[in-house]
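Review form for a predicted model. The reviewer records the input and the model, then writes brief findings.
Reviewer: anonymous (R2)
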Amino acid sequence: MKQSIGIDGPAGAGKSTIAKRIAAILQIPYLDTGAMYRGVAVAAKRHGVAFTDEAAIAETVASLDLSVRYSDSGEQHIFVDGEDVTGELRTEEISQGASLVSRVPAVRDRMTELQREVAHAQRVVMDGRDICTNVLPDTPYKFFVTASAEERASRRVKQLKESGQPADYETILHDIIRRDRQDSERAYKPLYCGADTKRIDTTDMTIEEAVEAILSEV
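Model under review:
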């Protein structure tokens, strides 16, 4: 496996933005692994499967044709059963669904296989919940990007308002705390910062400062 860069962390910490910038600077592909779990959630919704029905979710992912493709401009697209579902991935329903289906062992195992296939083929920057602890345990470049729940909620509110969408701070903060609990307390391959992973708290950092902190280690 090539020496890819792994970035883990909770929702809203800025890890995807940071990972994309690092990939652009190093001129290597960026893989948004969270989008893959969102693809599973889209598939479950289309099949009428409840996100909490673990047996049905496992059955769905076993026969699921999910692939990652890149446009000519390098933009990542998620295909489910041959259809580009990228435009459906960022709704609040699918966000919550992704957090729930990611707790199913069969889903995590299938996504891990696909992510490792990408990393075996080329050096990439990956971000997610268990990249450093599970997907790329042997890479020397492991980072855990985090921020306070309050700061992450504020960033989300700003992002939504800038796009013209309604945003309630208390509701978003509650959802972030709930998702953190789901991700860190799940029984199978939970989110945590490993002993050999460098922790970067972006609460009081700009994106540029966080990018520099990682690049200085790579």
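Findings: The first strand starts at residue 5 and ends at 8.
Further findings: The chain has a mean pLDDT of 93.
Recommendation: see findings above.
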